[in-house]
Amino acid sequence: MDLKEIKDKELWNSFVITANPEFYSFLQSWEWWELQSQEGKKIVRLWIYKWNLLIWIMLVIKNYAKRGNYYFIPHWPLLDWSIKEWISSILNQLKSMARSDKMSFIRFNSTLQNLKINKDFFDRNWFINAPMHEHAEDTHLLSLLPSEEELLQNIKKKDRYYINRAIKEWVKITISNSDKQIEKLIDMHYTHSKRENWKNKYSAFKKSFIYWLYKIFWKNISTVSASYNWKIESILMTIKFWKTCVYYIAASDIINSKFSPNYLCQWEAIKNAKREWCTIYNFWWVSPDENPKHPIAWVSKFKRKFSWFDYSLIHAQDLPLNNKYRLNYLVETFRRIKRWYYYKKPE
Q1: Average pLDDT of the residues in 274-303
Q2: Cα(253)–Cα(22) distance, integer angstroms
Q3: Which of 251, 255, 268, 327 could form a disulfide with 188 if both were Cys (CB 3.0 to 4.6 A apart)?
Q4: Contact in structure between 247 and 281 (CB atoms under 8 Å)
């Protein structure tokens, strides 16, 4: 079993596409890792070979923090998980690399579905539940295979009303990545994050992060806004990778709640993804259930109004390597409890 670093963008992206995983997103693209590098993260892209056969690829982010340094492997790896004997060899080499880099633990944020059989695999390899998530684990997916008419009919009547009413009220939709539109997205994103009440408050993305998103994913980003009387009331960003489109950043300042432009803005983003030949529209992060006390219950309720189904990934798994991990566990547990987060148990 050999672990080799890869520096070929086309080979990387083509492997992800041909692997045809059940769940994937732009987090698995080469461009996402370019973004991590621009953000100052130290990364290693690995190919894993067995008898000269490529069986696994993954990206390792080296995170350095006062509470403990660790390897972070987000939405990876892609491999045939049924061949268990290969995995133990890979994990042994990965642990050896981590110890050489003086890491306290390894964190997997896998794309495996949240099933007991998958959790049992991690348990057998000495992983434990991470105290805190790092990326979306519970998502809401919409199939774009039906016609636009069918997709609209699948939305409840009372929610379709907002879309139709906004159209009748001449709400203007703009799909553009112009500098003006990008600046408006950033401005509203920051204002919106500060305006929410204490429980629904969220941390806005750094401006530099959003700018680098546009620079690196430029061809696959769409910015959609809805305005009324020349004022933008709703704006969002989607990122496409292969046939999946992810609803990633959004903000609103709704004045006309009777025909909330949020609905029309989201509907036009869905239609735009379908025009770009996507087959899945991923609403990204939602709460694990419909409990109104969850920190993102308010936005999750909105996302679920567009029908179809939730898809749950297994919660982040940590592999402790030394006693320093205890500090990280305590710090992140405190943060999770303070923010009221909880996670869905495997089915």
Answers
A1: 94
A2: 36
A3: 251
A4: yes
pTM score of the predicted model: 0.93
Cα–Cα dist 92/74, whole Å: 19
Same-domain pairing of 154 and 294? yes
The mean per-residue pLDDT over the stretch 87-91 comes to 80
Q: Which two tokens stand for residue 52?
A: 């000269």
Instruction: Fill in the DSSP letter of residue 112.
Output: S
Written as six digits, the tokens of 178 are: 């112009």
Collapsing DSSP to helix, strand or coil, 214 comes out as helix
Q: Determine the pLDDT at residue 343.
A: 93
Q: Are 321 and 106 in contact (CB under 8 A)?
A: yes
Residue 104: pLDDT over 90: yes
Instruction: Please provide residue 333's backbone torsions phi and psi, each rounded to the nearest 5 degrees.
Output: -65, -40
Q: Choose between 325 and 6: higher pLDDT.
A: 325
How many Cα atoms occupy the beta-carbon half-sphere of 310 within 13 Å?
18
Q: Report the SS3 class of residue 108.
A: strand
Cα 346 off chain centre by: 19
Residue carrying the six token digits 């379908």: 274
Cα–Cα distance, 230 to 253 (Å, whole number) = 13
In 276-324, which ranges are continuous DSSP H helix? 297-303
- The model's confidence at residue 222, banded by pLDDT at 50, 70 and 90, is very high
Residues in the chain: 347
Taking residues 288-298, report their average pLDDT: 91
Do 130 and 143 belong to one domain?
no
Is residue 104 within 8 A of residue 322, CB to CB? The reply is yes
Residue 14, pLDDT score: 85
Residues 188 and 292 in one domain: yes
Query: Token digits for 100?
Result: 């050489």
Parent domain of 280? 138-311
Q: 53 and 126: one domain?
A: yes
